[in-house]
Amino acid sequence: MGSGPSVGLLGPLAVRIDGRDVAVRAGKHRALLAALSLRAGRVVPVNELVAFLWGADPPARTRGTLQTYVMRLRQLLGDPSLIRTTPDGYRLVVTPEQVDVHRFATAADLARQAARRGEPARAADLYAGALDLWRGPALADVPSESLRHDEVPRLTERLMVAHEERNDVELALGNHERLVPVLRGLTSDHPLRERFWAQLMVALYRCSRQAEALEAFRRVDRLLGDQLGIEPGPELRGLHQAILVGDPALAAPAERVDPDVPDDLPPDVPGFVGRVEVADRITRLIAPDETGTAVPIVVLTGVAGVGKTALAVRLAHRLRHRFPDGRLYVDLRGHAPGPAPAAADVLTGFLRALGVPPEQIPVDHDEQGSLFRSLLAGRRMLLVLDDATAPDQVRPLLPGAAGCPVLITSRDDLRGLIAVDGARRIALEPLTTAEALELLGRTGAPAEELAERCGRLPPALRIAAASIGGGSVARYLDRLGDRHPRELAHADLPPAARRLFRLLSAVPGPDFTAEAAANAADLPVDTAAALLAQLAAARLLRAHGGRYAFHEEPARFAAEPAEDTTQARIRLLRFYVRAVDHCADLLYPDLMRLPATDGGAVRLPRVETAAQARAWLDAERANLTAAIRSAAERGPAEVSWRLADGLRGYLWLGKHVTEWLTTAHYGLDAAHEQRDRAGEAAMRQNLGALHWRLGDFETSIAQYERSVELHRASGDRTSEAGVRGALGLVRLDAGDLAGARADLEACLALNRRSGGPRSGETAVLTGLGVLAIDADRLAEAEDLFGEALAASTADGLRAGEIAARTLLGVTARLRGEPGRALEQLAEALRLSRESGFRTATARALEAVAAVRLDLGEPAAALASAERALAELRDDGDQRVTTNVLVVMASAHRDLGDLRTADEQFQQALTKARRIGFRFGEANALVGLAGVRRLRGEPEEAAALCGEALALATRQGLRIVERAARAELAAGSGAPGEVCGRAPGGPGRRQDRAPRD
């Protein structure tokens, strides 16, 4: 921590200043210091301090008494400047890193990020460090009822969540044995915290202590019943059922692999038997040919249920060591309910798995295939294409590298692949009698008869084995009669389970959750979860990680319904609409969307935070895409455009451009066919946002303009205003500054005349402020950003507040006020890190780096810029990346490393030109000119600077024009401003969804 002050609140109050402990004995002094420390570096208003110290019974001379306590605390700390007086209150002059509460929050957030990046070992270390900061109950000896009521529960909940997340990481690392005593202690200390009990049950199960895991469930069941009068929640009950049936999803994680190596395989099938000779033959055929150039392709064919997928997946797991660059898997759903995935969707998934940032994935199918093949060149990877139906479905997915064999499963022969592409076909036969008996776990004549009755097919044998349990095979045969085992298993189910099984054939996507099933069947979620567990135990459904899917054969059986499934499908689609709306409210509440409609009562998923909303949408993305297609093709048509509209912000944030394009066009076609003006306007707006994201400004503007026309024709002025605002921001990015100003000003006027929400104005005010910066009207820019800040803070719009504060910092820097700039940027950084907005964090760090350059601190500037670039690693916003590269290059120039500076200015220039970012292009040209001048290349420097000046003048970028003229003056020896210094990017794009 260094020699500065440090304050500990996670336990008894602890203070160290300049390496010595400071005892704070008086209760009021402890409460005062705790209150100031919780807001480290920020002003705490007087009225809040009064409440913290005296609650509802303040003294007569409140302010005077408070001043006395502040004076005495200053004396006690030994440095009066540590507590500053402001017009509104008092501020403790410490950074968040000097208070353990804030260090804990930062460490826990970094741990979460590491876990999301697939770095569990790093996450575990960070969680351990965060939890070590706790020395006891928070604020343990601080005598303040107000603090105990307002702050302690919040801090304690953060501690509990960190424990839960750390436990999840340890389980993912396979550390279940050493976690058991930890979880025993946590369940003892917090017996009503169900998540700890669930983690204990999983840890015990993975230690082969199934009986103890079930006993843990019985204990928490009794505890909840005795103390709260309730039963365990769905997670615990589902886990209990999964332990009873030995769900393979509960098994310990497989051996850790490099997180950068793609591995999309489903779990290996437990209880696999036989297939030794076939497996050896496939292994020989897919062995990469070290000298050949042809791609080895094996087509594994056979009847439904013969075990093609199980064998392919098992082989892929066993051959991991032969394919060090990874394994890719996709279910092509050739014989499954619902539509098969398009080749573009599959390639998009493969490219993501290979590490291509979403915004760099081409939309054109041929370009996707070309990029895919180029990425596989020189690699050793295995591709598994499951359940294919035709050669044309497979060919776009084939690699061009001999080191990347392909294993395909299909019920069809795929003769075209054999004749044209050189594929080798292997027909998979049913199990031998001995193998079938091994799978049944029985011997003798009745078992042999049953094996034959099952066709010696693994799914039928598994269903029969599950139905028999510990009973008699002969008695089971008598009951079976002429039926297939699945028919008897179905008949043995309670009527409610049979009904649910039939209705689930209406599900358009690849899988479903208990909530989805509950809504489709109009059942309580708990009831649906219990019925799904029964169906999985009967081997009629596959269960994995809380999700369910049909086996091939039961899917066909369920599709012979005893009742019409139309209403079940409609109920499911309406559930998806409401769930997406709920997630949208959490993720982007200020984003303009179609007004919600009352679709009747639905059972929403348990999603309470923005992080949970994003996780739910990630898990359901394929199902939602299928639902949009189903609604567009089979009705209700309105669902297609409502779902597509609700997903717009999520698809923007995640850069899922392929799914975005697909869903928006389904919605647009449906709205156009139904002549629904509002729906078509929303879909045009959707496509405008998509093409904006892709950098195709011309198409984006055309779509937005058509949306404006439709809203105007329908008299919806508020929506018209919103789209005009988005249109202005696109024109701003495209470099049409006059058009941008006209649209943004029209948006403000329309919004205010129509009584639209003030929250809709924040991005518009920010855009107008950027225009003012471009025109070198800095006072006007500051006023606009201040107005945007006021609107954002009033409405609780965190992204808007961060953007406004960052731009206020940029403006202060350009006005020559570095201290004020750093103050605004520090707050923007704190808020962006707290919110997890990585692009916004990068933008603020880039602005800090620019200030450090102005202060003559190039090493500090470079450090900030490098941190900014690290924040952009997963997000990759190209405009912000361009600005960061300009600042990094400037820092290298000031450090005397002209070679690196030249390279980075060139990189920035290339990026800016590729995406049409005119400000970034002009800025990079000015910087590059300065480097060439310093290298003694005056003619080239003058040419580059002239190009920058022409571009800046043409685009109306006055601030860059001024920098270019200064550089020209430096090159000619005339007096001018700081030479070769680009002005720094004004931050055109923040970490936000478009405000359209």
Description:
Keywords: DNA-binding, TPR repeat, Transcription, Transcription regulation. Residues 1-94 form the OmpR/PhoB-type domain. TPR repeats lie at residues 681-714. Residues 1-94 bind DNA. This is DNA-binding SARP family transcriptional activator. The protein has 996 residues and is mainly α. Among the domains are: 6-122, Winged helix-like DNA-binding domain superfamily/Winged helix DNA-binding domain (Arc Repressor Mutant, subunit A), CATH 1.10.10.10; 276-427, P-loop containing nucleotide triphosphate hydrolases (Rossmann fold); 433-492, no CATH class; 493-588 and 617-627, Arc Repressor Mutant, subunit A (Orthogonal Bundle), CATH 1.10.10; 804-972, Tetratricopeptide repeat domain (Serine Threonine Protein Phosphatase 5, Tetratricopeptide repeat, Alpha Horseshoe). The protein is built from 46 helices and 13 strands. The strands form four sheets. It has a five-stranded parallel beta sheet with strand order 8-9-10-7-11, sandwiched between helices. The chain has a three-stranded antiparallel beta sheet with strand order 1-2-3, with no helix packed on it. Strands 4-6-5 form a three-stranded antiparallel beta sheet. A hairpin with a 5-residue loop joins strand 1 (6-8) and strand 2 (14-17). Helix 7 packs parallel to helix 9. The longest helix is centred in the middle third of the chain and has 25 residues, at 610-634. It is globular, with a radius of gyration of 32 Å. The protein starts with 5 loop residues before the first strand and ends in a 24-residue tail after the last helix. 47% of the residues are buried.
